C-alpha cells in the first residue's frame, strides 16, 4: 500500500505528480512538493536511522533544518552525501537515500549492542578507560573510530560545480516568515535594495501550517498576496532554499543557495549550490523559533516528534503520520496540533503536565473527542522500531512524585511540545548578547549590534498582530535611516492565530517511571545520545561550566549544533545547581548555522583555477621542446631539457658542459624586476642594500645583498643604473613581491621625504641569459650594440637593438662564464628566443634549466638566497663581508650585526665541502658532525645547503654552513646518512672553479 | 577513585552516582608558595609537576574563566616534535616523550594517538627543506622518514598527488599524532588536585603586586593573595599580564581559526600538513575532519578571526582531497595566539624577581603541553631555566640568538 | 570581516588589506648609538594593547598605500583611519 498516511486533500503537495524514490533500496512513491521526511511518513516509514553512540533506532523529530535524528546518506557514487537531513531533502524522480550508522541494516544493527551496554557507557566513559596497557590505545581507538562517525564520504572526486556571488544590499532580511515578510515589505515599498532569504522552497514560514486569519484572509492567501507584491518590486530579491550560514563583523553574512540539489542531476550547465557573500547596510533577523522537545523517559523512539512538526506534515504535506496520537504538552499552543489531527480523523489523547487547562481549550477538545489528562506525564514509552505504547501517570505539581494509578495507552504517534526557543544562533554569531527570558524559558536577543534588528518570534514576540506591525515598523525605520520612506502604511486591522503561544509550564525533565539518573533514557541531545543522567553525571564530576558540560557530555555538538537540545541542557543544569539559568550562562554559537558544503565555500578555486600558473613568454617553446618543469612559487620554470633517453643527471651534465664550453641559454624571465625612479634612488639603495651605491655610474651594474632589520640576508640581485634618476633592480624569483613590499614600506613609513617611485616590471621584460665562451661571438651578429670586450666590460649595461627589438643588455653572470642578460619587452620575448635558437644552431646553442643553473653557480660558489640561507645567516656568515660597507653610517640590518650573538666569530659559516671518496653526492639538507656515533643523537655542527655532481670538476661539490667553518679549512668532518653510512668530507673554500674569476671577464 | 574499566563497570551498578569530582572549587587562600596564573594545559601541567616532581606543597592555579577554555580547548590537537632547530627539537621531543606516558601518569585517557604525521613537499625546494628537517631530526633522535610520491599515495589513497602543486614526497613522523585536547586540561587538573593544588576558576588576575622589583602577590576578582613565586602561563593574554607587572613582551596576539566537518566514518587515519598548499587536517575519533586555518595579520583579543581565512583553506583542502568537497563544515571557531618574532616560545625569568613567564607559543602550543609544563615547573621551582628551557629566554631578542622556526619555513603549527 | 576606510580610496573590504603591526614605532635615528636592549626593544617589543590599538595597514589590492588605523582589539571596531605622518588621534 502506498501513501497510506496521506489524507485525501489539503497541503501544498501536487497529488497529480507522483515521484518515485528509493529508501534503503525499497521503492516508494511521493508527490511533488514532498520532502523525503514527509514522503516517508506518508508511506508510514518512521525508522530512519541510528543514533551516534547507542545506535538506538531513530525517526523524524522535526520538519526543518534543526533535525537531529533523521540523517540519511543521499545519492550514490561520487555524488553521495552523508548526514543529509530528510526533513530538508526535496524528493525528485529517482532519488536514492539510505540509513546510515547501522550495519547490516537499519532494522537490525549490530551496533545497537551499545544500547544494552549503555550503563557502562555514560558520558565521558572513554576518559576513564582504554588506558591499559598504554601500547594498545591505537588498537582500541581503531574500533572506537569505526563505531563513530555517521555517514560515509564519497570515494571519488566531486563531479559537481559550485558558484559564488558577492552581493551588496541596503537591507538583508533573514527569514521569510510573517515577520520577515513584513520587514521586507516595508523596506521594499520604501525603495531600498532588499534581499530576502528563506531556507524553505517557498517563504511563509510557520504561518503556512496553521489556521491563522489576517483581515479575513487565511494565512496562505495572505502570504501569497504579500509575495506577489514583493516580487513586483525590482529592488527586492527573494532567495528561496537559501540558508544564511554565517554572520560576521560589519554585517558580512554568508548564505548557501540550493540551485539544483533539490533536483535530479541535469547537466553541467547549472551549479549545484551557490555561495553568497553578502555585505548589507542593515540586517533584520526574522528567523522565528524552534519548538523545544520535552525531556521525558524514552522520548527518542521513532514516532515521537515535535507537535509543530507534525502539524507541518499534516497541513503542508497532507500527511497524517499517525492515527492514534498522544500529545504531550506543557502549553496551550500545541493544542492546535491536536485539534487539527482530530479534525482529520485521528484519535487524540492529550497529556498535559499542567493542572489547570483553560476551559476554552478543554471545550474545543471535547468537541472533537480529545481526551485530556491534566497534571499527567508520560513516564515511559514502548516500541523498538516505532513507538506503540506509552505509560502515563499523574504527577504532583512540583514534578517530584507520581501519584494516582499508572495508565497504558496504545498509540502510533507521540507529539511533544515544550515551548519555543527563539532561533538566536545568527544573532549570537554577530556578537549580539543574549538574555534569558523567564516567561519564555529561553534566550532572546539583548544588546543588538550596529545596523541590526531582530523581529518576530526570533525576538521572543509571539503575538501575531503585534509581530506584523512591529516588523513592518522596523523595516520602515531602517529605510528611513537610509533616507528612504514608504508611500504606503500597513493596513492590517486584525490578525489572529487560532491558538497563540502564551506560556509553558517548564520542567527540566519530566518525572519518569525510573529515577532520572537510573537508566531512564531521558534524552536531551538526540543525535549524540546525551541523557539527563549524563548532565547530572557531568555536574557530579565537576564539569560545571556550561562549556565543560557541553564538552564532557557532547551535548549540542551534533550536526544540529544543539538547536533542539541546548536550552533543555541549560535548564537541567539550572535545576541541578538550583541557580537561575542566567547564572548558568550559555555556550557560544558558532558559524555556520547549518552544516555547509566545503566545495561550495571553495567555489571555483579548484582544479586548474586553484592557483594561477605564471608562465614566461617562452613557456610554450619549453613545453614543445620537452622541458621538465619545476614550480617556483607560482612560476613554472624549466627544470631541465632531457633529450631522448636522458635522465636528469645526463641532461644537466650536457647542459652544464655546453655553458662551460660553448653556448647555453636560460629563460631568466621569472627574476623579479623593479623599476626605481627619482632623484633619491641612490640614497635609498644605500639604506636598503648592505653595500655602497652612491658612486654607481649610469650604465653600470652592481650586485647587492638585502638584509632585514635582524641583520639576516633576505634577498639579493643586481641593480643597474639606466639613467641619472632611473635604476633597474632585480630580485630572486620567489622574493619579488616581498622585496617590492619591503621597499614600499620604508618609502611610505620611514623615509617619506625621499623621492623614489617603485614599479614592479617583472612581467614586462623577457630575460634571455646567454652564457658561455661563444656568447659574445653569437650575440654580436644579432645586435647593433658594440659588445666587444673593450667597449662593453663586465658589470655594465647598454641599450640598443637585439634582433631588431629594443633591448637592454646586462653584462652580468651567474654561471661564471662570459654572459649577457638580454632584456626585451615580453611581447617580443618569444620572437627573440626563436631568433636566438635559429642563429645559435651553428654554436649548438643549448637551452638549460634551473638545475644546471644551480650547478653552474655552485661551481662558482655563488649563493642562492633561500637555499644556502635560511633567515638565520648574516652576510658575514655567508663569507660575504666584502659586500658590507664599513663606511656607511646606517643601512637596514646594520645595527643587528653587532649584537652579542650575531657578532660571535664561531657562527655557522658558508664553506665548501669535498667528499673524500670523490664520488658520493651528499644529500642536500644532510647534517655534518665532528664525531659520528653508532646511533643518534649526535652533536651537529652544520648542514649541507647545496650539493651536486659537478660535470666541470668531474666530482661532487657541496656548500655547507658549518660552525666556525671559515677557520677550519682542511678539516675532515663526517656526514652520517640516514642509511647508517657515514661519509667523510673535507672543508674547503666555497669556490670550486675559476677562483680568479677570469672567465666572465673574457 | 581510580579510573579503570573495572571501576567503570562497578560504578555502572550504582548508576555512576559515586564518582567523585574530577576537581573541586576551593576558596582562595591568603597565601601560597607558588601561584600559577592560567588554567590551560600548560598552566595546569606546571602546577601538577611542581607538586609531583619539585616538592612544592602550597600551590594555587588561577583561571579567569573555565579551565582548558583558551587555546587548549580550541586547537587542532596536532602533536609532533620534528622541528628544525636543535633547541626546538629538544623541547618538543621532551614533550612527545611525556605524551607517551601521559594517560597512565594522570590516570585519565588523553587519547594520545600516534597515528603519524606527514609534511608534504610540493616542489624541489620543499623536498630540500623536508630532507634537511629529516636529517636534523634524525641526528637529534627525533623519528623521521622521507617518503617519495608513490609511498605517500599508497599510505594516503584519497590524496590527490597530481594537483596544481603535485605531492613529490613527504616527511613522516610516526610518533606524531593527535590527542583529546579537553582531556589534557581535565586530566592535569584532576591529578594536580589529588596532589593538593587549589584550582580556582572564574578568578581573574587584575593586578600584580611588585615591591622593590620582587613579586609579592596578586590582586584578583576573588580578592588579594600573597605568593612567594608566581608563574604566568596566560596564552592569549601574555602582554596584558606582563603589563600589570610593568614590562612588555615581544608578542603580538592575533586570531587563529579552525573548523571541523560533520562526523563521517573513518577516511583519513593520519595527520596531514602542507605549508605550500596551506592545509592541515586530521580526522578525530568522533569522525570529524579537524582543519586548521591561517592566522590573521591583525591583533585581536576577540577570539574570532575574519572569515576569508576559513574560505581560503577550502580550496586547498579540496585540491588535496577532492573527495572532501561534498562534506560539510560543521563548526568554526577562533582563538588568540601569542606570536613571537621567531615563532618560538618564551620560557623563563622576567625583569621581576620570582615572577616567571611561559608564553608565546603562537600557533603550536598544544603539542608542547607536557614538555612546556615540565620545564617551566623546574624553572619556577629552581629559579633558573634548565638546559632545555634556557634558549627560550626573553633575552634572545636582545642578543639576536633567535630560534627562528619562522624563517626556516618550518611553520610552527 | 571589516570594512576599512582607506584614506586614499574610501571604504573597501578587508580582504584588500593587510595589517603590519603596531604603528608609531619610528626607526631610531642613529641605531649605532643604541644598546642591544634598546635595539631589541625597537625590533621586537610591542605594546600589544587590549583595547585601543594603533596599527599599520596596507591597501595591497588597491592603491598599495600604507596608512594607520586606530582600532579596538576587543570589539575589533575600527575607530579612525589616517595617513602616514598624520598625528596620532587620541583614544
What does this 3D model show about the protein?
The complex is a heterotrimer of chains A (1002), B (413) and C (91). Chain A is of the alpha+beta class. Among the domains of chain A are: 1-159, 2Fe-2S iron-sulphur cluster binding domain, sarcosine oxidase, alpha subunit, N-terminal domain (Ubiquitin-like (UB roll), Roll), CATH 3.10.20.440; 162-289 and 422-483, FAD/NAD(P)-binding domain (3-Layer(bba) Sandwich), CATH 3.50.50.60; 293-418 and 503-514, FAD/NAD(P)-binding domain (3-Layer(bba) Sandwich), CATH 3.50.50.60; 515-584, Orthogonal Bundle (Arc Repressor Mutant, subunit A), CATH 1.10.10; 903-1002, Beta Barrel (Elongation Factor Tu (Ef-tu), domain 3), CATH 2.40.30. Chain A contains 23 helices and 51 strands. Chain A is elongated. Chain A starts with 13 loop residues before the first strand and ends in a 14-residue tail after the last strand. With 413 residues, chain B is α/β, with parallel strands linked by helices. In chain B, helix 2 (41-53) runs parallel beside helix 7, helix 2 (41-53) packs across helix 10 (369-382) and helix 3 (86-100) crosses helix 10 (369-382). Chain B has helices at residues 5-13, 41-53, 86-100, 102-106, 124-140, 149-155, 181-194, 238-245, 307-320, 369-382, 396-399, and strands at residues 31-37, 59-62, 78-79, 117-121, 145-148, 169-173, 177-178, 198-200, 205-211, 214-220, 223-232, 252-261, 271-274, 279-283, 289-295, 328-339, 346-349, 355-359. By secondary structure, chain C is mainly beta. Chain C has one helix and six strands, in the order E-E-E-H-E-E-E. Chain C has one helix at 36-44, and strands at 3-6, 10-13, 18-22, 52-58, 66-72, 78-83. In chain C, the strands form two sheets. A four-stranded antiparallel β-sheet of chain C has the order 3-4-5-6, with no helix packed on it. Chain C has a two-stranded antiparallel sheet with strand order 1-2. Chain C is globular. Chains in contact: A-B, A-C, B-C. At the A-B interface, strand 6, helix 3, helix 11, helix 12 and strand 32 of A face helix 1, helix 5, helix 7, helix 9 and strand 16 of B. Strand 32 (596-597) of chain A pairs antiparallel with strand 16 (328-339) of chain B, so a sheet runs across the interface.
Amino acid at each position: 500500500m502506498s501513501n497510506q498516511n496521506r489524507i485525501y486533500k489539503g497541503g501544498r503537495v501536487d497529488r497529480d505528480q507522483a515521484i518515485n524514490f528509493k529508501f534503503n533500496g525499497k521503492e516508494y512513491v511521493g508527490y511533488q512538493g514532498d520532502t523525503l521526511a514527509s514522503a516517508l511518513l506518508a508511506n508510514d516509514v518512521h525508522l530512519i536511522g541510528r543514533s551516534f553512540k547507542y545506535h538506538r533506532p531513530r525517526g523524524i523529530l522535526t520538519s526543518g533544518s534543526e533535525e537531529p535524528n533523521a540523517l540519511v546518506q543521499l545519492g550514490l557514487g561520487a555524488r553521495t552525501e552523508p548526514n543529509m537531513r530528510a526533513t530538508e531533502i526535496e524528493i525528485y524522480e529517482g532519488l536514492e537515500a539510505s540509513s546510515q550508522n547501522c550495519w547490516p541494516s537499519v532494522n537490525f544493527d549490530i551496533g545497537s549492542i551499545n544500547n544494552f551496554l549503555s550503563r557502562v557507557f555514560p558520558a565521558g566513559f572513554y576518559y576513564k578507560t582504554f588506558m591499559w596497557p598504554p601500547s594498545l590505545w591505537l588498537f582500541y581507538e581503531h574500533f572506537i573510530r569505526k563505531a563513530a562517525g555517521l555517514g560515509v564520504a564519497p570515494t571519488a572526486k566531486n563531479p559537481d560545480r559550485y558558484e559564488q556571488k558577492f552581493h551588496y544590499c541596503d537591507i538583508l532580511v533573514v527569514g521569510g516568515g510573517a515577520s520577515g515578510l513584513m520587514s521586507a515589505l516595508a523596506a521594499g515599498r520604501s525603495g531600498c535594495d532588499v534581499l530576502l532569504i528563506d531556507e524553505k522552497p517557498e517563504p511563509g514560514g510557520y504561518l503556512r501550517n496553521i489556521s491563522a486569519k489576517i483581515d479575513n484572509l487565511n494565512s496562505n492567501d495572505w502570504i501569497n498576496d504579500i509575495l506577489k507584491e514583493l516580487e513586483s518590486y525590482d529592488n527586492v530579491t527573494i532567495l528561496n532554499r537559501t540558508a544564511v550560514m554565517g554572520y560576521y563583523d560589519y554585517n558580512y553574512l554568508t548564505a548557501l543557495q540550493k540551485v539544483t540539489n533539490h533536483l535530479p542531476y541535469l547537466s553541467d550547465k547549472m551549479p549545484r549550490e551557490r555561495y553568497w557573500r553578502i555585505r548589507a547596510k542593515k540586517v533584520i533577523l526574522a528567523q522565528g523559533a524552534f519548538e523545544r522537545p520535552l525531556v521525558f523517559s524514552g522520548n527518542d523512539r521513532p514516532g515521537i516528534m515535535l507537535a509543530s512538526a507534525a502539524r507541518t506534515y499534516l497541513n503542508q504535506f497532507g500527511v497524517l503520520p499517525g492515527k492514534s496520537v498522544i500529545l504531550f504538552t506543557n502549553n496551550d499552543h500545541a493544542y492546535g496540533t491536536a485539534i487539527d489531527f482530530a479534525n482529520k480523523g485521528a484519535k487524540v489523547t492529550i497529556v498535559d503536565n499542567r493542572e489547570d487547562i483553560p476551559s476554552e481549550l478543554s471545550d474545543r477538545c471535547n468537541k472533537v473527542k480529545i481526551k485530556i489528562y491534566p497534571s499527567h506525564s508520560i513516564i515511559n514509552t514502548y516500541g523498538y522500531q516505532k513507538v506503540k505504547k506509552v505509560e502515563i501517570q499523574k504527577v504532583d505539581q512540583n514534578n517530584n512524585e507520581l501519584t494516582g494509578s499508572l495508565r497504558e495507552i496504545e498509540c502510533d504517534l507521540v507529539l511533544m511540545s515544550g515551548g519555543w526557543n527563539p532561533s538566536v544562533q545568527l544573532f549570537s554569531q554577530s556578537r549580539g548578547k543574549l538574555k534569558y527570558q523567564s516567561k519564555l524559558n529561553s534566550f532572546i536577543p539583548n544588546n543588538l549590534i550596529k545596523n541590526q534588528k531582530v523581529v518576530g518570534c526570533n525576538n521572543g514576540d509571539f503575538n501575531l498582530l503585534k509581530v506584523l506591525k512591529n516588523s513592518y515598523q522596523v523595516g520602515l525605520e531602517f529605510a528611513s535611516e537610509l533616507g528612504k520612506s514608504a508611500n504606503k502604511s500597513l493596513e492590517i486591522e486584525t490578525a489572529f492565530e487560532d491558538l497563540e503561544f502564551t506560556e509553558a509550564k517548564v520542567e527540566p525533565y519530566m518525572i519518569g517511571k525510573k529515577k532520572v539518573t537510573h537508566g531512564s533514557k531521558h534524552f536531551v541531545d538526540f543525535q549524540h545520545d546525551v541523557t539527563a543522567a549524563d548532565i547530572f553525571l557531568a555536574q557530579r564530576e565537576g564539569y560545571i561550566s556550561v562549556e565543560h558540560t557541553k564538552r564532557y557530555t557532547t551535548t549540542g555538538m551534533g550536526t544540529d549544533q544543539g538547536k533542539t537540545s541546548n536550552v533543555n541542557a541549560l535548564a537541567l543544569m539550572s535545576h541541578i545547581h538550583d541557580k537561575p539559568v542566567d547564572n548558568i550562562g550559555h555556550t557560544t554559537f558558532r558559524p555556520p548555522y547549518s552544516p555547509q558544503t566545503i566545495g561550495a565555500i571553495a567555489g571555483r578555486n579548484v582544479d586548474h583555477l586553484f592557483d594561477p600558473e605564471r608562465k614566461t613568454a617562452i613557456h610554450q617553446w619549453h613545453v614543445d621542446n620537452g622541458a621538465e618543469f619545476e614550480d617556483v612559487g607560482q612560476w613554472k620554470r624549466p627544470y631541465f631539457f632531457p633529450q631522448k633517453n636522458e635522465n636528469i643527471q645526463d641532461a644537466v651534465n650536457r647542459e652544464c658542459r655546453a655553458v662551460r664550453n660553448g653556448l647555453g641559454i636560460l629563460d631568466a624571465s621569472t627574476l623579479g624586476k623593479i623599476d626605481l625612479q627619482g632623484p633619491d634612488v641612490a640614497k635609498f639603495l644605500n639604506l636598503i642594500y648592505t653595500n655602497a651605491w652612491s658612486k654607481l655610474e649610469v650604465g653600470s651594474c652592481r650586485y647587492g645583498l638585502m638584509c632585514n632589520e635582524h641583520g639576516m640576508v633576505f634577498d639579493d640581485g643586481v641593480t643597474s643604473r639606466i639613467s641619472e634618476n632611473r635604476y633597474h633592480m632585480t630580485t630572486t624569483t620567489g622574493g619579488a613581491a616581498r622585496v617590492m613590499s619591503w621597499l614600499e614600506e620604508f618609502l611610505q613609513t620611514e623615509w617619506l621625504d625621499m623621492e623614489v617611485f617603485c614599479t614592479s616590471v617583472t612581467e614586462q621584460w623577457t630575460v634571455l641569459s646567454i652564457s658561455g665562451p661563444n656568447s659574445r661571438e653569437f650575440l654580436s651578429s644579432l645586435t647593433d650594440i658594440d659588445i666587444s670586450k673593450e667597449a662593453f666590460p663586465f658589470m655594465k649595461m647598454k641599450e640598443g637593438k637585439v634582433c631588431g627589438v629594443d633591448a637592454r643588455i646586462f653584462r652580468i653572470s651567474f654561471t661564471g662564464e662570459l654572459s649577457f642578460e638580454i632584456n626585451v619587452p615580453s611581447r617580443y620575448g618569444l620572437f627573440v628566443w626563436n631568433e636566438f635558437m635559429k642563429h645559435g644552431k651553428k654554436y649548438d646553442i643549448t637551452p638549460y634549466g634551473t638545475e644546471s643553473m644551480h650547478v653552474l653557480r655552485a661551481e662558482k660558489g655563488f649563493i642562492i638566497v633561500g637555499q644556502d640561507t635560511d633567515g638565520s645567516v648574516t652576510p658575514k656568515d655567508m663569507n660575504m663581508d666584502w659586500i658590507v660597507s664599513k663606511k656607511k653610517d646606517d643601512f637596514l640590518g646594520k645595527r643587528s650585526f653587532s649584537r652579542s650573538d650575531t657578532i660571535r666569530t664561531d657562527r655557522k659559516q658558508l664553506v665548501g665541502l669535498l667528499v673524500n671518496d670523490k664520488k658520493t653526492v651528499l644529500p642536500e639538507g644532510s647534517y655534518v658532525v665532528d664525531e659520528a656515533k653508532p646511533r643518534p643523537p649526535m652533536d651537529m655542527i652544520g648542514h649541507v645547503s647545496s650539493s651536486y655532481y659537478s660535470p666541470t670538476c668531474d666530482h661532487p661539490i657541496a656548500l655547507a654552513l658549518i660552525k666556525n667553518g671559515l677557520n677550519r679549512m682542511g678539516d675532515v668532518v663526517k656526514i652520517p646518512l640516514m642509511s647508517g653510512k657515514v661519509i667523510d668530507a673535507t672543508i674547503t673554500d666555497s669556490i670550486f672553479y675559476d677562483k680568479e674569476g677570469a672567465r666572465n671577464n673574457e | 577513585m581510580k579510573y579503570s574499566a573495572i571501576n567503570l563497570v562497578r560504578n555502572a551498578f550504582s548508576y555512576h552516582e559515586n564518582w567523585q569530582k574530577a576537581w573541586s572549587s576551593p576558596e582562595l587562600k591568603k597565601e601560597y608558595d607558588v601561584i600559577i596564573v592560567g588554567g590551560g594545559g600548560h598552566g595546569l601541567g606546571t602546577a601538577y609537576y611542581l607538586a609531583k616532581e619539585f616538592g612544592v606543597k602550597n600551590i594555587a592555579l588561577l583561571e579567569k574563566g573555565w579551565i582548558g577554555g583558551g587555546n587548549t580547548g580550541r586547537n587542532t590537537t596536532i602533536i609532533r616534535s620534528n622541528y628544525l632547530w636543535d633547541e626546538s627539537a629538544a623541547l618538543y621531543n621532551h614533550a612527545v616523550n611525556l605524551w607517551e606516558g601521559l594517560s597512565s601518569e594522570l590516570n585519565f585517557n588523553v587519547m594520545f594517538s600516534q597515528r603519524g604525521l606527514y609534511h608534504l613537499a610540493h616542489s624541489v625546494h620543499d623536498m630540500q627543506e623536508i630532507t634537511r628537517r629529516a636529517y636534523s631530526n634524525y641526528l637529534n633522535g627525533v623519528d623521521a622518514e622521507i617518503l617519495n610520491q608513490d609511498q605517500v599515495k599508497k599510505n594516503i589513497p584519497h590524496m590527490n598527488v597530481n594537483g596544481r602543486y603535485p605531492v613529490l614526497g613527504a616527511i613522516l613522523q610516526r610518533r606524531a599524532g593527535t590527542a583529546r585536547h579537553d582531556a589534557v586540561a581535565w586530566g592535569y587538573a584532576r591529578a594536580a588536585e589529588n596532589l593538593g593544588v587549589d584550582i580556582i576558576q572564574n578568578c581573574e588576575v587584575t593586578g600584580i603586586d611588585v615591591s622593590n622589583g620582587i613579586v609579592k602577590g596578586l590582586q584578583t576578582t576573588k580578592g588579594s593573595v600573597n605568593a612567594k613565586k608566581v608563574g604566568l602561563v596566560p596564552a592569549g593574554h601574555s602582554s596584558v599580564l606582563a603589563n600589570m607587572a610593568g614590562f612588555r613582551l615581544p608578542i603580538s596576539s592575533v586570531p587563529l581559526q579552525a573548523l571541523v566537518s560533520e562526523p563521517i566514518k573513518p577516511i583519513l587515519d593520519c595527520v596531514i600538513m602542507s605549508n605550500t598548499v596551506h592545509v592541515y587536517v586530521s580526522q578525530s575519533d568522533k569522525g570529524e575532519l579537524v582543519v586548521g586555518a591561517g592566522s590573521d595579520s591583525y591583533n585581536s583579543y576577540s577570539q574570532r578571526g575574519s572569515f576569508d581565512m576559513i574560505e581560503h583553506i577550502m580550496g586547498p583542502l579540496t585540491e588535496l582531497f577532492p573527495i572532501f568537497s561534498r562534506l560539510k563544515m560543521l563548526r568554526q571557531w577562533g582563538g588568540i595566539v601569542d606570536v613571537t618574532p621567531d615563532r618560538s616560545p618564551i620560557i623563563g625569568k622576567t625583569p621581576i624577581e620570582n615572577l616567571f613567564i611561559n608564553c608565546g607559543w603562537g600557533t603550536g602550543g598544544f603539542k608542547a603541553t607536557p614538555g612546556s609544563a615540565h620545564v617551566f615547573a623546574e624553572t619556577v621551582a629552581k629559579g633558573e631555566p634548565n638546559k632545555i628551557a634556557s634558549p627560550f629566554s626573553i633575552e634572545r631578542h636582545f642578543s639576536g640568538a633567535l630560534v627562528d622556526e619562522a624563517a626556516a619555513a618550518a611553520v610552527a603549527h | 570581516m571589516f570594512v576599512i576606510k582607506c584614506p586614499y580610496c574610501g571604504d573597501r573590504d578587508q580582504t584588500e588589506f593587510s595589517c603590519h603591526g603596531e604603528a608609531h614605532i619610528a626607526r631610531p635615528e642613529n641605531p649605532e648609538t643604541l644598546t642591544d636592549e634598546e635595539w631589541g626593544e625597537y625590533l621586537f617589543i610591542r605594546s600589544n594593547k587590549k583595547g585601543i590599538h594603533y596599527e599599520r595597514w596596507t591597501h595591497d589590492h588597491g592603491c598599495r598605500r600604507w596608512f594607520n588605523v586606530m582600532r579596538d582589539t576587543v570589539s575589533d571596531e575600527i575607530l579612525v583611519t589616517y595617513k602616514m605622518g598624520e598625528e596620532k588621534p587620541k583614544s
